[in-house]
Amino acid sequence: MPAESLRLSARSDDGRSFIVANAAGSAFVAGSLIVIVSDRHRQLALVEDRSETTPVRLRGRLIGELTEEGMNTRASHTFEHGLVEAADVATVETLHETTGAMLEVGVGLTQPGGPARLLPQRFNRHTFWCGQSGSGKTYALGVVLEQLIAHTALPVVIFDPNSDFVRLGELHPDATGPTAKALRERDIRVLRPHGEPGARLRARFLGLPLSSKAAILQIDPIADREEFNELIHLRSIIESGELFDVLPQLLAGENAAQRRLAERVENLGLLDWEVWARQEPAVTEIVGERPDVTVLDLGGFSTPEQQLVVALSLLDSLWERREERRPVLLVIDEAHNLASPRLDSPIAVAVRERLIQIAAEGRKFGLWLLLSTQRPAKVHPGIISQCDNLALMKMTSPADLEELGTYFGYAPAALLERSPWFRQGEALFAGGFVPAPALVKVHTRLTREGGSDVRVPMR
Question: Distance between CA atoms of 12 and 214, rounded to whole angstroms?
Fold first, then answer.
């Protein structure tokens, strides 16, 4: 038994948490895994806080009971005196096997180290991923997505405004192993505004619900109640074809309402938008084929409104078909582009409201979100509050960290406070998709990055 275990004595009054009243001289810090041995039980525990007052105290949670057969994460016990031992890598492996943590994304930064793994089955909860510029947020997200794509059958749709994931199907030549082999076999499609025929990123006006058509036409049902009412009565015409097909009929109509609607289409320049599918497949149709991955390269459009049209079209379609309960993970990079509380255009509001609805109700239908952003304040609180998984990279803003602590109470405060000192590629994982909150150094990617920082030219 390690000498340190003879010095440290732990107590648990509730069978869920523990305290070490005097941890002077101990090297255990927040994030360390330990084993507490009492008369009848050996239990794995996580140190969540280390006070530096005198005497030094350790506090944390009990994870589960260690048995000869493995680990029981549903059992934990009270004890008066428990001797504290350092957990070893083999014990962590037992924890991973017990919980089904199989997606290896990096290595642990706190004792005892070893592989860091996530639980694939717990991506059936919404995930919030954040880190300031330069933290390695997008790169690290790519590592996790590689694991999900390679080792699950969960279809992934990536809303990619900066073309960071467009090369997700291209592996480095030296990439080897089971993950690399699996990635080479996956159906990964990249849809671009100016892609090859059949792989262009397009939406179909005809397929949108009435409320979304009104948002694109900037017709508010209250402020523009007369025009919206006319739109309702023109529904049969609007749903009979695409804008290109319908516009001549509206212009030639004897009804003044039809002509006003045609003028609105022309004044907004909607026919000049390249986003419309015409004779090509729409994004809803391609995603409906359920490839393993669909990357939506949103950044290539000439206007932000067209990005929003694509997002709204797909989100509306998935919600309309939610009763089919066909799981899909919606990865929204730079989520403030679609989910900011500050967006106020009709179509932006429509996208955000649909995301809020999916965040609140989509989980039971298999519509799961993973939102990535630089700042939590940039994402609507109605979405963040529904996230059960957290990935936090370097974050130096005290206000942002305080806000995260409010939303993600399952993340130990002492680990959140480490965030300002994270190096690039380091992260805190907490929530249901990790066996226990963990500080992790993320692995190197197997696939190529689509975007990277521009270097300063040197002489």
Answer: 59
